[in-house]
Every structure is written in structure tokens, then in C-alpha cells.
């Protein structure tokens, strides 16, 4: 039998899975301390690289898991949804997102963790996100050309670089390990 | 809410990260999609606007996306985000970390911190709309699937945050 396990038409099962997976997601984020804006923001002042460490450890585990499950035929990679690439909107969106993150101190997922654990600032980030979505949604038809520009669909680094999937995954592992070493080194010097 | 019991220290970031990676991998295996957060806000906003001004909602490329067959209220990521809150609450209560508070540096008044939290949320929402996702849906999920756009987003968002951090130093120290 090949994963994904749930068929797309089983709505109730799929939403139940969403609750359970979400709870596990929130649990691990809270365990790591990422519901705390001050801890999270330490990333950008070289004090505490928890964001980088959590994020890249998670990325490595999931990336290697998907790669090996696919290689052994246990996961149908064509059935896994890859978020589409829109080069220019994602460059501008990334810059805005990073700017908002430094001011808010929490990203959308971690703001939810903060709010659920009693942090009022987390709740205000959630309200800002909701307000921003309403505003962006109402104004977006004026920027529809830009929003839909430079669309590439599901586009992966191995396709972009013309390199084998396993080779790119191995390069990401090396990159992440180098980033971990760098983060440990900077943390020791800043403290 | 055990103020008498000391809050336990946070978990090792590499260990917590590996755990998070297994959760993400489980999402790929069980439902064929990754984790996310910003789409929950987008679909809720779509539902709210559609309830008040249906034509206005249908004209928006963002809202229209969530007003399809199942409607905005059965969005997978909204259920997932409710789960995030529940899981976070369980973890914090087990560790004695539940506390009603405004987290802020001493240099910032409570009111300023909340205003900045709201404003930062607005800017992140606009960024997430353009980028088709945030730290979880793009950077983490798309990153693990080696999506080009996800890695662009990850690089630019981290670079922008690091570049602007010195200007925002007063907000955090």
C-alpha cells in the first residue's frame, strides 16, 4: 500500500487528521519555546538560534523522510502537494513577511501558540493577521497582474538545477549542518 | 496556571525540531500535504467578507480561492490551526508555562507592544498573501519538498528580518 493514506473525498477523516496533526505541531512548537516572542526574536540578534535549529532540523527530517519513502515506493510523491512557485510575488512577499516578523516577534503559527498559552501579544498578532488578510484580499484585484506573475507551478530545486533529487537533498543536509555549526559558534561569542 | 510551580525549561531545539519534522512527514504520508498557518486566516477572512459582501469577495483573487466547493469554513488548515492551539495549550500546561501576560521588553509600554504586534501581523499577512504561505506553509513544508519558491521565500524573509533587526533593536532590548 502506498501513501498518502487518506483519499481526498473523505472530508471528516481529513479534518480529524488536521486537528491531530495540528495538535502535534503546536505541541512541538511550544516545547521548543517558539511561542515566546523574545526567544524567537533572539534569532535576529545572534542571542538564540532556536528558530534556525528547530526549523532546519524539522526540514531535514521531513525532507529525508519524503525522499526515502518515495525511493522505497511507500509514498507516491506525485500525490504530495508542492506549493506553487511565483518568483516575483514570493520575493516581495518574503521581504514584507520578514519585516513584519521582526516587528511582531511571532510568525502566524507561533503567534497561535503564544495566544493559546496566555500571551496577549500573540493574540494581537492573530488579530493583525486577520485584519491584514481582509485588507489584502480587498485590494488584491488591483494587483492581480503582479500577484499572478512569474508563475511556475510546482517547481523544485532538482528541476531548476538539473541535478538528481538525492544530490540536492544531500546538499541541503550539508548546508543545514554548516548553519548549525555557525549558529553554535555565534551563540558562544554573543553570550 | 501554577504560578507556584516553576516553569520547566524548553526542550532541546534539535530534538524538538526532529519531532516537528516527524509531524510534517506524518502529514505528507497521511493526507498528502504539509502544515501551514496563514491560509487559516485567509479562508476565515474570505468567509467573513463573503457573508457581508459576497460580490466583493468573489472579485478578489485571494478570497475566490477559498469560496469553492467546500466553502471557507471547512478549510483543512483552519482545523489544523485549531489543533495547534490545543497542542500548544497541552504542552504549556504540562510544563507549568500557562500564564496570562504581555511579553515585552521593559523599554516598551504594554500598549506599544500590542500595537506593534498588531501592525506586524498586518504586514506579515500581506507578505504571506503574495508569497502563498508563511513560515510553516512555505518555508517549512515547501522547503522540505525542495520547492524553488519556498527556498526563495525562506532566503528573502530571513535576510529581510536580519537586515531590519538592527533598526528594531529598541523594540526588543
Description of the structure:
The complex is a heterodimer of chains A (191) and B (173). Chain A is mostly helical. Chain A has one domain. In chain A, 69% of the residues lie in helices and 3% in strands. Chain A has a two-stranded antiparallel sheet with strand order 1-2. Chain A starts with 10 loop residues before the first helix and ends with a helix. The relative contact order of chain A is 0.13. The model of chain A has no long low-confidence stretch (mean pLDDT 96). Chain B has two domains: 1-100, no CATH class; 104-173, no CATH class. Chain B has nine helices and no strands. The two termini of chain B are 27 Å apart. The model of chain B has no long low-confidence stretch (mean pLDDT 94). Chains A and B meet through helix 1, helix 2, helix 3, strand 1 and helix 4 of A and helix 1, helix 2, helix 3, helix 4 and helix 5 of B.
Determine the N-to-C terminus distance of chain B: 27 Å
Mean pLDDT of chain B, nearest integer?
Answer: 94
The H/E string of chain B reads: HHHHHHHHH
Mean pLDDT over the residues of chain A: 96
Report the strand count of chain A.
2
Low-confidence stretches of chain B: none
Low-confidence stretches of chain A: none
Short description:
Chain A is mainly α. Chain A is built from 9 helices and 2 strands.
Q: How would you describe this structure in keywords?
A:
heterodimer; A: 191 residues; mainly alpha; two-stranded antiparallel sheet; 9 helices; 2 strands; B: 173 residues; 2 domains; 68% helix; globular
Question: Layout of SSEs?
Answer:
The complex is a heterodimer of chains A (191) and B (173).
Chain A: H1 11-32, H2 37-41, H3 50-71, E1 85-86, H4 87-104, H5 108-116, H6 120-139, H7 144-147, E2 151-153, H8 157-161, H9 165-190
Antiparallel strand pairs in A: 1-2
Chain B: H1 13-31, H2 38-52, H3 54-59, H4 61-66, H5 76-94, H6 110-131, H7 135-144, H8 148-164, H9 169-172
Amino acid at each position: 500500500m502506498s501513501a498518502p493514506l487518506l483519499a481526498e473525498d473523505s472530508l471528516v477523516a481529513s479534518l480529524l487528521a488536521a486537528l491531530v496533526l495540528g495538535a502535534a505541531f503546536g505541541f512541538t512548537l511550544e516545547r521548543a519555546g517558539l511561542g515566546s516572542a523574545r526567544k524567537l526574536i533572539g534569532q535576529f540578534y545572534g542571542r538564540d538560534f532556536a528558530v534556525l535549529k528547530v526549523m532546519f532540523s524539522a526540514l531535514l527530517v521531513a525532507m529525508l523522510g519524503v525522499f526515502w519513502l518515495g525511493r522505497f515506493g511507500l509514498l507516491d510523491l506525485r500525490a504530495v502537494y508542492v506549493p506553487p512557485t511565483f518568483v516575483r510575488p514570493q520575493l516581495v512577499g518574503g521581504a514584507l513577511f520578514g519585516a513584519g516578523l521582526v516587528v511582531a516577534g511571532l510568525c502566524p503559527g507561533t503567534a497561535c501558540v503564544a495566544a493559546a498559552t496566555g500571551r496577549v501579544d500573540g493574540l494581537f498578532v492573530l488579530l493583525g493577521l486577520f485584519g491584514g488578510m481582509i485588507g489584502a484580499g480587498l485590494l488584491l484585484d488591483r494587483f492581480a497582474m503582479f500577484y499572478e506573475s512569474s508563475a511556475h507551478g510546482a517547481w523544485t530545486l532538482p528541476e531548476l538545477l538539473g541535478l538528481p533529487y538525492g544530490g540536492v537533498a544531500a546538499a541541503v543536509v550539508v548546508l543545514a549542518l554548516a548553519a548549525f555549526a555557525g549558529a553554535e559558534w555565534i551563540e558562544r561569542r554573543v553570550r | 496556571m501554577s504560578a507556584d510551580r516553576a516553569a520547566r525549561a524548553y526542550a532541546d531545539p534539535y530534538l524538538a525540531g526532529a519531532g516537528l519534522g516527524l509531524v510534517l512527514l506524518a502529514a505528507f504520508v497521511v493526507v498528502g500535504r504539509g502544515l501551514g498557518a496563514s491560509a487559516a486566516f485567509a479562508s476565515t477572512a474570505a468567509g467573513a467578507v463573503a457573508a457581508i459582501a459576497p460580490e466583493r469577495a468573489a472579485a478578489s483573487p485571494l478570497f475566490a480561492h477559498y469560496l469553492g466547493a467546500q466553502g471557507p469554513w471547512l478549510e483543512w488548515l483552519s482545523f489544523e490551526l485549531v489543533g495547534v492551539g490545543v497542542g500548544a495549550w497541552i504542552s504549556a500546561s504540562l510544563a507549568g508555562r500557562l500564564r496570562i501576560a504581555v511579553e515585552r521588553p521593559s523599554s516598551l509600554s504594554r500598549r506599544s507592544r500590542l500595537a506593534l504586534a498588531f501592525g506586524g501581523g498586518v504586514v506579515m499577512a500581506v507578505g504571506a498573501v503574495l508569497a502563498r504561505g508563511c513560515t510553516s506553509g512555505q518555508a517549512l513544508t515547501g522547503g522540505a519538498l525542495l520547492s524553488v519558491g519556498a527556498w526563495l521565500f525562506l532566503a528573502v524573509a530571513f535576510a529581510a528580518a536580519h537586515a531590519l533587526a538592527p533598526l528594531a533593536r529598541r523594540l526588543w532590548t
